[in-house]
Amino acid sequence: MGKVFNTTAVCIPEKHYMVDITERLNQIKALVDEGKYFTINRARQYGKTTTLLALKKMLEKEYDVIMMDFQTFGSADFATENIFALSFANTFLRQFKKYVSGMEIPLKQAVEMLEKSVNGRAGYFTLKPLFEELGDICEASEKPIVLMIDEVDSASNNQVFLDFLGQLRAQYINRFQQKTFQSVILAGVYDIKNLRHKIRPDEEHKYNSPWNIAADFKVDMSFSENEIAGMLEAYEKDHQTGMNIEKMAKAIYAYTSGYPFLVSRICQLMDEDISTEEKYGSKTAAWTDAGFHEAVKLLLAEKNTLFESLSEKLSSYPELNEMLYTLLFTGKAIAYNYYEPSISIATMFGFVKNQNGVMAIANRLFETWLYNLYLSTSEMQSKKIYSAALLDKNQFIMDGRLNMRLILERFVVHFNDLYGEREQTFVEEEGRKYFLLYLRPIINGTGNYYIEARTRGQKRTDVIVDYLGEQYVIEMKIWRGKEYNERGEKQLVEYLDAYHTSTGYLLSFNFNKNKETGVHEIVLGDKKIIEAVV
Predict the structure, then answer these.
(1) Which residues contact 268 (CB under 8 A, 6 or more apart)?
(2) What is the DSSP string of 360-427?
(3) Can you tell me the distance from the alpha carbon of 460 to that of 282, in angstroms, rounded to the nearest whole number?
(4) What integer is the mean pLDDT of 369-385?
(5) Where are the extended beta strands (E) located within 454-526?
(6) N or C: which end of the chain has fewer CB within 10 A?
(7) What is the pLDDT of residue 198?
């Protein structure tokens, strides 16, 4: 059986199409060579475990590498310090004897001493003797020992875990007097350098992680366009689809910003699902613009583990949910400050990124998924503008094409009828949302839309609609005077060149009492702009 794209569990180079992560492995190895202790904290399905396994393989020439997974520890294993110490020691010994061969007498004796302590002092074996005897093993080993622990945040809400981090910290500080691990790598979603933990049920959360000896981990684990292209080249060598690799890699990156799961899932859908649909019928037909947009549509509509995890986080952190809603629908720029709790949480879970000092949704797919999520609530769909769209939707498709001008015309009528008497603040905060709410049922199931993040601001937002392979560029903005409006028209013309289309759409929310609402055309050079004013 040939290679496939993988989106579940660990990626294996012999079985799966993968990007070449050698460069980032070399960057991580440099931290290990320097004796750093650090945490790889990234969002769910960001390739952490795959990276650790590849790193383990790379390091084994120079180091003895012990890799553990706290997800395999049950809650009972963290019940007391004694139980945890025994569980940790048994797992360590099992891994050590499995992967370290040809032990010299001093190392063999140190390992046997830990085994004897575990078996002979089971009732009162604690973290202190555990780390003392781990230190003896490090001292006796010919190769420096690297300790990796995956899914480390599975234990983060336990006092014994904090005590464990404290022991690692103490050994690190005393490493020049007592030999210890060459490097310790902890991998998980949560940033345990700033662990928020309740010591007692009646206390507020406190930031009290003793993991302040950890080095900053600045390695970029997202996939670049070139890395995606390299993976597609390997696929193309096997399947000869005739795809434009450079163009496809650029499109995948534009929608995913290199988020590993999203990259692999889009490729997997084109390879396994789109290619077997009657409409496409082959891998050659699937790896095209149309096949790519079909894969995006399927991805946004499916139930997968990543989106389920994101949804759960929105429910668990109301402040996160509120902040993302504000960012998406009001157009207000939010300064990026990692120490603001909701921004820290949003970053940790992969929702947002720092874009030139301003917070932005991490990638185009997440942004569209969030819009769909918020616009699908019963509260949103009870709005009269949504009901109007449901009644209107059948009139907007003509010869397989979307009649965007007619959509704008009908939206202007409905918006003015329903909300025309509302105050300016309402329109500024709700106008964009209500247009998307009107648009969604019209294109749902056939097309997709996304917000062009580079133009996000309180005054302007661009919506790009993909419908049956055709793109429609719609700029939404608040009217700020004729000069500002003309400048916006010229900028829209530039975007039309970028999207290789001759017609653009402008939706202006105008608060002037003497405004003239409706839809009209503007011709600028070889471009046509259809402007709607509400």
Answers:
(1) 4, 5, 6, 7
(2) EES-HHHHHHHHHHHHTSHHHHTSHHHHHHHHHGGGSEETTEE-HHHHHHHHHHHHHHHHTTS-HHHH
(3) 41
(4) 92
(5) 460-467, 470-478, 503-509, 518-524
(6) N
(7) 38
Among candidate residues 104, 98, 105, 130, the one with its CA nearest the CA of residue 115: 130
Three-point CA angle 322, 328, 334, nearest 5°: 75
**Residues 516, 532 contacting (CB under 8 angstroms):** no
Q: Which residues of 58-67 are buried (b: 16+ CB within 10 A; e: fewer)?
A: bbeeebbbbb
What are the Cα distances from residue 340, in Å, to 319, 322, 350, 369, 416?
11, 14, 15, 24, 39
The runs of H, that is alpha helices, within 100-158 are 105-120, 127-140
Cα(513)–Cα(479) distance, rounded to whole angstroms?
A: 12
Both structure tokens of 46: 């960001």
Quick one: tokens of 3? 């290679």
Q: Residue 266: helix, strand or coil by DSSP? A: helix
- pLDDT for 387-436, tens place per residue? 999 999 989 988 888 999 999 999 999 998 998 777 767 776 788 889 99
What tokens were used for 427? 């329109």
The first and second tokens of residue 516, run together, are: 């003239």
Q: What is the DSSP letter of 216?
A: P
- Closest among 411, 431, 306 to 369, alpha carbons compared: 306
DSSP string of 286-351, one letter each residue? HSSHHHHHHHHHHHHHS--HHHHHHHHHHHH-HHHHHHHHHHHHH----B--TTSHHHHHHHHTTS
Torsion sign over Cα 285, 289, 295, 297: negative
Tokens of 56: 């383990």
Q: Which of 409, 364, 357, 444 is nearest to 517 (CA)?
A: 409
Q: Order of strands, edge to edge, in the sheet holding 64-69?
A: 37-41, 183-188, 145-150, 64-69
What is the H or E stretch that residue 166 is in? helix 159-173
Paired strand residues for 183: 146
Q: State the Cα–Cα distance between residues 328 and 298, nearest whole angstrom.
A: 22
Here the tokens at position 6 are 């993988």
pLDDT (tens digit per residue) in 88-134:
999 999 999 998 878 899 999 999 999 999 988 777 899 999 999 99
Exposed (0-12), middle (13-18) or buried (19+): which is 492, by Cβ within 10 Å? buried
The four Cα atoms 322, 325, 331, 337 give a dihedral, to 10 degrees, of: 50
- Locus of tokens 């553990």: 68
Which stretch of DSSP H or E encloses residue 449? strand 447-452
CA distance 382 to 141: 68
Is the pLDDT reported for residue 17 higher than 70?
yes
Apex CA 87: angle with CA 84 and CA 88, to 5°?
Answer: 85
Kindly tell me if the per-residue pLDDT of 199 is higher than 50: no
